Amino acid sequence: MEPTADIALIGLAVMGQNLIMNMNDHGYTVVAYNRTTSKVDEFLNDAAKGSKVVGAHSVEEMVAKLKRPRKIMLMVKAGKAVDDFIETLLPHLEPGDLIIDGGNSHFPDTIRRTKYLESKGLLFIGTGVSGGEEGARFGPSMMPGGSVAAWPLVKDIFQAICAKTPAGEPCCDWMGEDGAGHYVKMTHNGIEYGDMQLICEAYQLMKEGLKMSNEEMHEVLTEWNKGELDSYLIEITRDILGYKDEKGEYVVDAIVDTAGQKGTGKWTSVSSLDLGMPVTLIGEAVYARCLSAMKDDRVEASKILTGPAQGFTGDKKAIIEDIRQALLASKIVSYAQGFMLLREAAKEYKWNLAYGPIAMVWRAGCIIRSVFLGKIKAAFDKNPNLSNLLLDEYFKGLIDRCQPSWRRVVAQAVTAGIPVPAFTTALAFYDGYRSERLPANLLQAQRDYFGAHTYERLDQPRGKFFHTNWTGKGGNVSAGTYTV
Ligand code: NBP
Fold first, then answer.
1. What is the 77 CA–ligand 1 centroid distance (Å)?
2. What is the pLDDT of residues 419-437, one digit of tens each?
3. pTM of this prediction?
């Protein structure tokens, strides 16, 4: 029988099934396969009933149904399952065939898999897919990277099924070599952690500082979502704050205050430390989840440790506007840090990342989609070499405008004893980044004092190192320079 299918998809859980139906809607013939093959029949008799989707009950059958070069997309649990499937597929494929991993894989795995499969004459793509179930079904944001020669093979399919910006541009573009796509997706998730934490801090300030009801906060977020903060996460928070159960009680109030995490925020923070990039807001967002998870300790500590008892003072409406502006300014810092990380990763891993297209890919379909990302895209379109988002005219103007509010909110929160780690770290970063001189001169002196680590001098060329015998007891031998 002549092979007729355009692509195969392995992994019939929520993401896989929805992506298949999305591809089907766009005219592609998809072969569906799953480790537990009974799920193939369930799918064909349920969601895929009446569609062009064909099933396979073995890898041989699946491969036989595919047009050459074969394109096989994995939507399985990240980690060992991906490696196991690659090994299972290998004997059935031939040079030029393509394996795509659409799961949330860690980028070093994607780098390794690209090299491995290319060494066997095959092509590999690791693609971030964002937007959850609904995104997969009706248009996700997609971030593919891997074997460069693989992109033309899937470009049409991916750009057909992905989300589109309000201007109609596809939210899927080639990110770069080997792990670039999964790195960009990881950074997306890290930024998502930051955005969520910032919104939670705004909520805490209104709830604890201003003693506002859910209904009042719901109304405030409804307003926020009409302006500069217009985004998916503000929209769902608005809806959550207004949501009551069948007994007429707010569900949000019944939820235990311990946050879960699946690791992509941690990966982003670890990578930022590896690359020496101060991505402080995402780091604080990860730690805030960790602190929230220490519920029993916090309950104990709350009975022992004290803090100020006061709420906020001042005009409520003005403070709400201050909170909105503090949120916006902190968000700018978070995205500036995220793009700093991408820039450094591009250098380290030799990826040719394009920042405007990355902002465009995140503009719709994904969890961090927002009007704000349109402004980021415009900033990078205007200057593709922009070294930091904070230096773009539009964002500089916004920060200038929001700054007084931002400082007032942080000061009020600190005075009232309300924890706002993301708001405060964003402001500290901003103040650090704009400082010509930081106290690291003293730090270098300390390092030289106890470890003879040497320092550079302001009155001498950079790269020339000096050591002082601070106590008169040490020798003049200095430690070798090294970077940690
Ligand atoms: P899951 O992450 O729950 O994975 C389920 C699929 O993996 C099933 O097809 C299952 O087969 C297969 N699988 C497992 Br579990 N262990 C396997 C193994 N050792 N060997 C072969 N297959 C194995 O599904 P999902 O939520 O649809 O997510 C798929 C991927 O997409 C994941 O990497 C996820 O992180 C990523 N992702 C998910 C979302 C989301 O919102 N859910 C969003 C974005 C990205 P079985 O049926 O035989 O058990």
1. 3
2. 999 999 999 999 999 999 9
3. 0.96
Please, what's the largest Cα pairwise distance for the chain? 88
pLDDT digits (tens, 9 = 90+) for 1-35: 788 999 999 999 999 999 999 999 999 999 999 99
Give 103 Cα–ligand 1 centroid separation in angstroms: 7
**Tell me: the pLDDT tens digits for 269-317?**
999 999 999 999 999 999 999 999 999 999 999 999 999 988 898 999 9
% of the chain surpassing 70 pLDDT: 99
| pLDDT for position 481 | 57
> So which residues are the catalytic ones?
185, 192
Helices (H) and strands (E) in the chain, counts: 19, 8
Measured by CA distance, the residue closest to atom 17 of ligand 1 is 81
Q: In this structure, which amino acid lies at residue 207?
A: K
Residue from 72, 53, 51 nearest 8 by CA: 72
The pocket around ligand 1, CB under 6 angstroms, is made up of 11-16, 34-36, 39, 75-78, 80-81, 84-85, 103-104, 129-130, 132-133
Atom of ligand 1 nearest to the CA of 39: 47
Tokens of 39: 């799920």
Residues comprising the chain, all counted? 484
Question: Which atom, in ligand 1's list, is nearest to the CA of 34?
Answer: 9
How far, in Å, is the centroid of ligand 1 from the Cα of 324? 38
Task: Locate 61 and state its tokens.
Answer: 């059958």
Q: What is the DSSP string of 264-303?
A: HHHHHHHHHHHHT---HHHHHHHHHHHHHH-HHHHHHHHH
d(CA 381, CA 92): 44
142-187 pLDDT, tens per residue? 999 999 999 999 999 999 999 999 999 999 999 999 999 999 999 9
Burial of 219 (0-12, 13-18, 19+ CB in 10 A): middle
What is the distance between the alpha carbons of residues 156 and 264, in angstroms, rounded to a whole number? 28
